[in-house]
Amino acid sequence: MPALERLFHPGDKDRLYPVIARRVSCRGFAAPLSTADWAAVSYLAGRYQLPGARLYLTRVEESLFTGTLLGPGRVTGCQAVAVVVASSSIPRARLHAGILGEALCLEAAAMNLASCWITGTYRKKQLSVPLQPGEAIMGVIALGHPAEGVLQPGNRRRKPLEKLCKGDVHAWPEELVRAARAVLMAPSALNLQPWEMTVAPGRFCVDAGERAQLDLGIALCHAEIALRSSHAWRFAAVRKDPAAWAQLDEYKEDNHHGAS
Ligand SMILES: Cc1cc2nc3c(=O)[nH]c(=O)nc-3n(C[C@H](O)[C@H](O)[C@H](O)COP(=O)(O)O)c2cc1C
Question: Are 123 and 161 found together in one domain?
């Protein structure tokens, strides 16, 4: 099973990087997935693999979705979801679930399909998913063709880059600023954007709280797609470490401007 740094071929990265800027959460769907879409999405849901996490594509009724009084409104017109499943017995399974789910969202956007991560505003009990012992449903990704005019990536509300990055982000190497910007555009639960990015010699670090493992995985998916130079992902072994960092040979020595 591949590690994160081997999840995407260079050609996949070239294809998916521009999609990061146009992916936007969709809550109004028009046409359901065609048979051809369904086949393509099923293939993609199985194509990306990481330990302890999987995506299960299933048809759903619109009544699966609920709304909140003050939230962005319930999802309408959606007839298919990818159920995001993670195992409690495999290390970093929730993080892996975030990575796989977001890879699917970006692949869907590349096919001009729309998506929305949903972990709160749905009726979990309404889903019928065969689960292995220790597996749990983390949420669903609504999928389908967007209703006209609902997708507006230009209206994205995001914190300034400087707020998510510790140290002088403008002094970081260009590639790492590109990775940080890719993280900035990632979706997150309640749009909390719980990430903190730092650069240390030879390291691009991404942190998020223990309760935000899906959001962290989503951010790492975007960072991985943006990174081009050779690197390997490492994960915190002790609490004082950031949750994850890309170890990059390229910036080992004197190129670590803005390190904190
Ligand atoms: C892990 C996760 C859970 C989410 N859960 C919900 C949800 O329950 N209901 C909802 O309407 N949107 C949900 N969203 C969508 C976010 O509200 C959305 O990503 C965020 O507001 C940023 O907007 P954007 O995706 O259009 O950039 C979720 C997003 C993520 C990443």
Answer: no
Distances (CA, A) of 123 to 87, 111, 159: 20, 28, 30
> What region does 167 belong to: left with phi over 0, alpha with psi -120 to 50, or beta?
left
Number of domains, the chain = 2
- pTM of the predicted model over 0.90: yes
- Measured distance CA(7)–CA(96) in Å, rounded: 11
Q: Note the pLDDT tens digit of each residue in 154-166.
A: 778 999 999 999 9
Helices (H), ranges, 23-128: 35-47, 93-110
Higher pLDDT, 197 or 32: 197
Shortest-distance Cα residue to atom 2 of ligand 1: 189
Helices 93-110, 213-226: axis angle to 10 degrees equals 50
Pocket (CB within 6 angstroms of ligand 1): 24-25, 27, 71-72, 116-121, 139, 156, 187-191, 214-215, 218
19 and 148 share one domain = yes
> Which domain, by its residues, includes 55?
4-153
In order of 83, 143, 166, 212, the CA distances from 64 in angstroms are 12, 13, 40, 24
d(C-alpha 51, C-alpha 204), whole Å: 23
Q: Is residue 217 part of a domain?
A: yes
Please give the backbone phi and psi of residue 55, each rounded to the nearest 5 degrees, phi first: -115, 135
